[in-house]
Please model this.
Amino acid sequence: MTTILRKPGDIELIGKVKAGNQLAFRMLVERYEQQVRRTVLGMLGQVPEADEVAQDVFIRFYRSIENFKGEAKLGTYLTRIAINLSINALKKRQQKNKRWLSIFQREEQVIQLPDPSADPVRFETSELINKAIQKLEPEFRAVVILRLVEGYSVKETAEMLQLPQGTVASRLSRAQLRLKAMLQTILK
Amino acid sequence: MERNELSALLAYSLDNELSAEQQQILDKAFAKYPDLLKEREELLQLRQLLGRQRLSPNKQFVNTVLEGIATEHRPTEKSLSGSLVQLFPKVAAACVIVLLVSLLNLYLNGDGWSTEALLGLSELTPDDAYSILTEE
Model:
């Protein structure tokens, strides 16, 4: 006779965490690690601080877990925290390094690359895409990450960013065209 | 509609339902601008690539989160040195106040702030000096 182990749902695990069950919290972190890291790495790029920010998302969630009532899905809730902390980190980065171009004055450029076959490891598509995403302003980056990387609908993206759907749609449209222009060498 | 406006409408159409009028404009545009179809293919390809972004794993991620939480809940150990370090500013401030009051007292007593007054020598007599020096 086989026993089917039921995977506990988020609400059940959160209840256990509130009761002091550390293992339940570990399970939640493992469940949403990829989603949160992908969001933060998408916003901040492949930098060492990105994983620190991602870890901070879960720590902040733990601190305020009593306030989580379950109105939003946990994934959505954590992603919202991830976006907010990422934007804070971007602002700190800008203040720290005043030599960088203003985050609102990024110049677009085609991502230059020599023949990819010459150094296929370095010029992996994923890296090129990450570089292109980093060239977008944070407000465009956020909609691209949520809609196109994480797969949220336009409506869900708008709710998470607390923006009108029309604004999200407009930013998405412009961001896609800019990414296409930057990545034209790898799009066939 | 301008060509760049058509590109924007095309990108918009991939995420949003177009009105009948907008859809008509786009359908006519595909017929008029064959490269618009190619553009659509490129946008779809881009979206596929974005959706397939993968992360390099971080095996320590979960443990680091749990350690961060454990650190927050750990009670801070109180040590003598820690207490002294915390008290130091208050003690230093108290000493400065005592010094200032003493100097003010000296000044107000008419002795001024000469070296002799500060060292307490102004009231000493030669007999006092002999007594101090010969004390065992």
Notes: The interface with chain A takes residues 7-8, 11-12, 14-16, 39, 42-43, 45-47, 49-51, 53-55, 58, 61-62, 64-66, 68-69, 72 of chain B (CB under 8 Å). The helical segments of chain B are 3-13, 20-32, 34-51, 61-73, 80-108, 115-119, 126-134. Residues 3 and 33 of chain B are 9 Å apart (CA to CA). The first helix of chain B runs from residue 3 to 13.
